[in-house]
Specification:
The chain is α+β, with helices and mostly antiparallel strands. It has a domain at about 5-30 and about 60-125: Reverse transcriptase/Diguanylate cyclase domain (Alpha-Beta Plaits, 2-Layer Sandwich). About 30% of the residues lie in helices and about 20% in strands. The chain contains 3 helices and 6 strands. A 4-stranded antiparallel sheet has the order 4-5-1-6, sandwiched between helices. A two-stranded antiparallel ribbon has the order 2-3. Strand 4 (about 80) and strand 5 form a beta hairpin. InterPro entries: DNA/RNA_pol_sf, Rev_trsase/Diguanyl_cyclase, RNA-dir_DNA_polymerase, RT_dom. One of its GO terms (biological process) is DNA biosynthetic process. It comes from Araneus ventricosus.
Length: about 130
């Protein structure tokens, strides 16, 4: 996984920053059929397996990060993800508007949802990764 300081350094030197908080990050990633049995549990009504990656799995964070890196690969020039937080950074406002639309299109195509109440758009300064 990336170091938080690396991500902050890349984002921090831009004029316009947007931060997207993905809703229940890991829970938006489908569980691969070959590992579903690791998510199995039994209740009074029978056995179950998760169809999505549940919170608390040992490798959920790193698996989600790899998924985000792959999904956002075409946006690398202006976008970084750290687990379920995505930051975009630009010097130019018109570019910012154009590429944020493209980013949302990519997220939609990947069935990923952002929590708009926690998102910030086109700011000069944002709180990102707790800093």
């Amino acid at each position: 996984m990336k170091l938080v300081t690396e991500v902050l350094h890349e984002v921090g030197k831009s004029s316009f920053i947007s931060v997207l908080d993905l809703t229940k990050g890991c829970c938006q990633i489908p569980t691969k059929p070959e590992v579903k049995h690791y998510t199995a549990f039994v209740t009074h009504s029978g056995p179950y397996q998760w169809n999505i990656m549940p919170f608390g799995m040992k490798k959920a964070g790193s698996t989600f990060q790899r998924s985000m890196d792959k999904i956002l690969s075409k946006h690398r020039r202006y976008c970084r993800a750290y687990i379920d937080v995505v930051a975009t950074f630009f010097e130019n406002w018109e570019e910012h508007k154009k590429y944020i639309r493209e980013l949302f299109q990519t997220l939609q195509e990947s069935n990923l949802n952002a929590n708009l109440e926690k998102c910030e758009f086109g700011k000069k300064e944002v709180k990102f990764l707790g800093m």
